[in-house]
Write a structure and sequence with these properties.
Elements lengths: L7 H5 L11 H8 L18 E8 L9 E3 L4 H8 L10 E3 L8 E3 L4 H8 L3 E8 L7 H6 L11 H10 L10 H9 L11 E3 L15 E4 L3 E2 L10 H15 L5 H25 L12 H14 L1 H4 L3 E8 L8 H25 L6 E7 L18 E6 L7 E4 L21 E2 H12 L6 H4 L22
Parallel strand pairs: 1-9, 1-10, 5-12, 5-13, 6-7, 6-9
Antiparallel strand pairs: 2-4, 3-4, 5-11, 7-8, 10-11
Helix pairs in contact: 2-9, 4-12, 10-12
């Protein structure tokens, strides 16, 4: 980048990000504050169930090797990617219904190709964090409003979860979404936002935080509480005795109440999920499949849990491929493809495919150029959306010409996004039930890219 005279301070920014781990105990503490929050009047109401499943490909998925040009665009791709280019004949052909551009899918993803051909998967091209629409000339002359910490893992992962890239915010757009819609659920005992990956910014709002579960046992409470052996029966009795006391100290009494509510929430959740009948679908034995199976079980228990709206967050690490890109990415994409197909099959059993939309995010794409055996951090990339309400078998956005020194390429194979995260998330939010007139509360920059209430969809990939 230095040969283009772009200031490293301007382009990269200063990286800083703090992470705090939580358990369902702390989820319960913070959710007490939202127990009586009312939905804003302009929110769409109704008894229909909807869920958003956010899958974060942490580390930066090399998504130009996930969605790849074929035909006329392949030669520029192959020249730019050099030793990292996938053979054209190995690509899985995608016959999109909304574009004549020839694109293919990574050969490790045949299950996703089948779902695409069935109209249940769509791809978004060259999407990324933007403060406002930005041109190459503006970036090169220093006049562009760039996201803070561009190309930094911690900052860009944060911005994808907040969609406010001009600042480092502790609240995510999923948290703000829950602040608006949590009261649509008939119970406030368990958060609308459920995380399989601990605390996260995406699901943290002013009043709502994630309810943390794991892929094995569901909700995690006081270790050993309620178990039937003699030791744990004595421990449970002791805990109950402490919790049932009346404390003069307000803090102690409040803390005791929070622990009791947390235990009750854990018991409620695990009881509801435990009653779900086994799926006919066989899930693979790995973290991604196990996590998606737990999400499917939670969705199956939605009526027992009193849920009308839910979000789920699953973080999948291992995508920072500065080395051994081809083999490592092929393995991860293959595992993801199988797991998503299993998840969709389970949702079909639940007759819930139209109710659940699953979508991917990632820190950024990777540089189109090779660093020897891998790739470096970049900017705009490609994302995937799956669900029965998706206008699938289509590719949205503007897939760039993958030639070095093209109109969007900044050097080193880094591409300026042409679709913003705001447009991406606004479409999901409108499907989820947010009023167009609340989009600016949810996504403060949306007016730079889309006119809420203007009569058209932000992008068009959802059946609104």
């Amino acid at each position: 980048m230095s040969k283009r005279n772009i200031s490293r301070r301007k382009f990269f920014g200063e990286a800083s990000c703090a992470a705090i781990g939580t358990t369902t105990l702390f989820s319960s503490i913070f959710n007490l504050a939202s127990a009586n929050v009312l939905a804003r009047p302009s929110i769409a109401a109704g008894g229909d169930y909807k869920a958003l499943v956010c899958i974060s490909l942490s580390g930066g998925n090399d998504s130009f090797n996930m969605l790849v040009p074929r035909g006329a665009g392949y030669s520029a791709y192959a020249l730019s990617r050099s030793n990292l280019a996938l053979p054209e004949n190995d690509l899985l052909t995608l016959n999109a219904t909304n574009t004549s551009q020839e694109l293919g899918l990574h050969p490790s993803m045949p299950e996703i190709k089948t779902l695409f051909d069935q109209g249940n998967v769509a791809f978004l091209s060259n999407v990324g964090t933007l403060v406002r629409p930005t041109t190459k000339a503006e970036v090169l002359d220093g006049s562009a409003d760039l996201p803070l910490g561009l190309l930094s893992h911690s900052d860009q992962a944060m911005h994808w979860q907040t969609s406010v890239p001009q600042e480092r915010s502790p609240q995510g757009w999923g948290g703000r979404l829950a602040d608006l819609l949590q009261s649509m659920n008939s119970t406030q005992d368990i958060s609308m936002n459920i995380s399989l990956s601990g605390n996260n910014i995406f699901q943290s709002g002013a009043n709502v935080t994630p309810y943390t579960i794991n892929s094995d046992t569901g909700a995690v409470g006081v270790l050993g509480y309620g178990e039937t052996d003699v030791f744990h029966q004595l421990m449970t009795s002791g805990v109950n005795s402490l919790l049932n006391q009346q404390y003069q100290d307000v803090f102690k009494q409040t803390y005791s109440g929070v622990i009791k509510n947390s235990i009750q929430s854990n018991e409620l959740f695990n009881s509801a999920v435990g009653e779900v009948a086994p799926f006919n679908t066989t899930f693979s034995d790995n973290y991604i499949s196990d996590s998606l199976q737990m999400i499917a079980r939670t969705i199956a228990a939605r009526e027992t849990l009193g849920m009308t709206r839910q979000t789920f967050f699953l973080n999948i690490g291992g995508w920072d491929h500065h080395d051994e890109l081809l083999n490592n990415q092929a393995a991860l994409l293959g595992q993801l493809s199988v797991a998503l197909n299993e998840f969709y099959s389970a949702l079909t059993e639940l007759d819930a495919t139209d109710c659940v939309t699953t979508y991917t995010i990632s820190d950024f794409a990777r540089s189109l150029t090779s660093n020897g055996n891998g790739t470096d951090h970049a900017w705009g990339g490609n994302a995937m959306v799956m669900g029965g309400a998706v206008n699938g078998q289509a590719i949205y956005g503007s897939y760039p010409e993958l030639a070095l020194d093209s109109s969007l390429e900044l050097g080193g194979g880094i591409f300026i996004p042409t679709t913003s995260t705001d447009e991406y998330f606004a479409e999901l939010a409108l499907w989820f039930g947010v009023s167009p007139f609340d989009l600016s509360t949810l996504l403060p920059n949306i007016g730079e890219f889309y006119t809420p209430g203007g009569g058209s969809n932000p992008i068009g990939f959802m059946n609104l």
